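W.,

You were right to be curious about this one. When I first looked at the sequence I had no strong expectations either way, so I just let the prediction run and decided to look at it fresh. Below is the sequence, 89 residues in total, followed by the output.
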Amino acid sequence: MGRKEALSDSLDNEQRKTLEQIVDHRSGANIEWRQVRALLEALGTVTEEHNGKVRVTVGGVSEVFEPPREKDVDEELLSDLRRMLARRS
């Protein structure tokens, strides 16, 4: 079983689609922050920090993200998400 399949076992259809868009490197996919946050909450723990940033812990790996000002995530945030999900133990 591949990494993406292992991650998606407990996800609903929308979360699975969001994961595929992130992992499959679909630039220009217009992934909304609300979709990413729902995915991260399904995969692990999401905590808002006092400075407006979001601490995410998935499978023992923690990262802090700054939510985008616009509704869609940018390429830099997608890259950070891919890296985090790849490092997940």
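Here's what jumped out at me. DSSP finds four helices and three strands in the chain. And, maybe more interesting for your project: The helical segments are 3-8, 13-23, 33-43, 75-87.

Coffee later to discuss?

I.
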